[in-house]
Sequence to fold (526 residues):
Amino acid sequence: MTPQATQGRSVVLVGAGNVATHLGRALQETGCEVRAVYSRSEASARVLAAELGTRLMTDLADLPDADLFLLSVKDDALPGVAAQLCPRHPGSLFAHTAGSVPMSLFGGLARRYGVIYPLQTFSRQRRMDISFVPLFVEASDAAALAALTDLARSLSRYVVEMDSATRRQMHLSAVFVCNFVNHLYALGEQIMDRCGLPFDLLLPLIDETARKVHELSPRRAQTGPAVRGDKAVMDAQTAMIGDPDMRELYRMMCKSIEKISRQ
Amino acid sequence: MTPQATQGRSVVLVGAGNVATHLGRALQETGCEVRAVYSRSEASARVLAAELGTRLMTDLADLPDADLFLLSVKDDALPGVAAQLCPRHPGSLFAHTAGSVPMSLFGGLARRYGVIYPLQTFSRQRRMDISFVPLFVEASDAAALAALTDLARSLSRYVVEMDSATRRQMHLSAVFVCNFVNHLYALGEQIMDRCGLPFDLLLPLIDETARKVHELSPRRAQTGPAVRGDKAVMDAQTAMIGDPDMRELYRMMCKSIEKISRQ
Fold:
């Protein structure tokens, strides 16, 4: 791929989940030709293919050739898909989008390969401006790195080279600050639901909690009963939680807050 | 207190922590006279008193009279402070600002009393526009409720009446979506630190995670290995975590996500 972004280049989207949907849309917007969307079964793939005006393919053996194959399937499906797909397209560049899967997945299967990992949470229902999503790239050789970096730069203003071992650590951080955080929102909603309160009452608090760590380190930003050592509140709140798993989670979080505040 | 906001009214701030600091500033800005700041020891109290141009008092017995005594001390110090203070000022209105402490704390001690609970996370270092902070009020009688509601409305555009039992539940939700969420940010930072990555790389993800739940319910917004049932990633990530408490927390969060996604 040349520095002239993705104009005139072609891609096949392998997978039709949240990441494939958002990257596929963005690639097409930058002028990239999406030659096909591959998905074994999902109904959502039909929607994505229709939106992008391209073919939905359900057999890896039938895929057209393309400059780039972008693999955004579940992590545990990646080895099988790569093994079937790569040898059929020896001249193409292959990249996966997974945080925790090493680039070496492609070793011995493809000649030119790499990773484009978007550090973001994608939901199909929400439009997303990819230009603000940090993209982390890695590639098998200098030419592949240049090609993937150019592609990434055509999509986002934050493009960083990162090796597989570091990316795996960053992905773990992301699970904590995004997936687990969202789950705490869900537990908060459950408590609000049970006393008939709208979840929306919590939104100013949720927003400020996120905004604060733009200015203060999370350790300095910590507030609440656990960091104050307010045992009376912690005991009372533990007793209020009916669900034993949630009660145990409450205890562990308090313990972990107290631990980090002593470090 | 009349509907003419707090102009010409007087308040004594009992406590000089984050909540007292932010409410004290906001009250003074609306024209309320802050007659004194009480704190037994904290150096931060000296800073607050100086900022507000008022006296720092360290003995409850010395406090001047005021229309309102606003008690923002630690939950477990509230009963003792109320017991000493209320009988000395029989004509005053008393309010505490605690989420988990019932209004009945003042029962038998004061004639007119209530609660103003701000649902927000306050850090001394961050300026805060109180007008966007939801305030939850409760009072001993209709006149006290009117007075506290007027005061609250002079500070914020979101003022809601709420009883002690409901407020306690909402405070528990707040601990999940704010205090525990911030702690997950701190754990994410710890992982980033260990591989030499700046925490700031996570900010776009943190922001989007918070923004998403303005549009989608947290349950629908959930992404990541646990909700996908991606056991390979979960096993690999569990193995990456060196600290046993953090590893256990990871396992519990995944289990809790899987549980809520099945409901």
About this structure: Residues 164-194 of chain A form the longest helix (31 residues). Residues 1-5 of chain A have pLDDT under 50 and may be disordered.
